[in-house]
Design a protein that fits this description.
With 209 residues, this protein is mainly beta. Helix content is 10%, strand content 27%. A seven-stranded mixed β-barrel has the order 4-10-9-7-5-11-12. Strands 2-3 form a two-stranded antiparallel ribbon.
Length: 209
């Protein structure tokens, strides 16, 4: 089994404009008999799942997402060597089957930049490529970057890939890591907190020996 999620730590990188992450001791083991940590973080901290409610008015919230939607064989599409801010087009997806698994993960290698300024300049999935994957059966889109859409440090309200995936009642998993060396077809599981909201931090794993 391989962990595909970033650890949640105070001061870790977040999407521009999201709440900062602060883990503060609330109870002390020696003083209070138990250690408890107070958490301040956004629902889209670290490796996390976007529920449809993230960008779709009236969309499903995270507590209404079944675990079965986030567990199964995934198609891993590798697109290495991309330039900063590149767009991943249909041609970059390679030879796709007529029907793809419900979970598709796009590995750009950008997870290595998480926590740096360059993470903001990640490649993004083209909307036509997203539509094609959705048409062929993708329900969950996973990426190893801050977003499948371009990230604008100054803020943006345009999320075309989110509109395709979440608008179709699908799910997006962002900030995956540890994808190196995994086979092109791999069983994975993503386990988000059951928050009654627009998304939730998650533990993601690949079921490999």
């Amino acid at each position: 089994m391989r962990d595909l999620s970033h650890p949640v730590r105070t001061g870790m990188q977040v999407y521009p404009g999201d709440p900062s992450v602060d883990l503060t001791p609330a109870l002390d083991l020696e003083r209070d008999g138990a250690a408890v940590t107070s958490l301040h973080l956004g629902s889209h901290t670290g490796t996390h799942v976007d529920a449809p409610a993230h960008t779709v008015p009236g969309g499903r919230t995270m507590d209404l997402v079944a675990l079965e939607e986030l567990v199964g064989e995934a198609l891993l599409i590798r697109v290495p060597g991309l330039a900063d801010g590149a767009t991943i087009g249909i041609a970059d997806l390679g030879e796709l089957p007529d029907r793809v698994p419900s979970i598709v993960v796009v590995d750009t290698g950008w997870a290595r930049h998480f926590g740096t300024e360059r993470a903001l300049r990640h490649p993004a999935l083209g909307v036509d490529a997203a539509r094609l994957l959705a048409e062929r059966g993708m329900h969950v889109l996973g990426v190893d970057a801050l977003s499948p859409d371009p990230t604008d440090a100054a803020g943006t309200t345009e999320f075309p890939v989110h509109e395709v995936v979440l608008g179709g009642d699908g799910l997006i998993v962002e900030n995956l890591t540890g994808l190196d060396g995994l086979p092109p077809r791999v069983p994975i599981g993503v386990f988000p907190m059951r928050l009654a909201g627009d998304g939730a931090p998650a533990r993601a794993v690949a079921f490999v020996g």
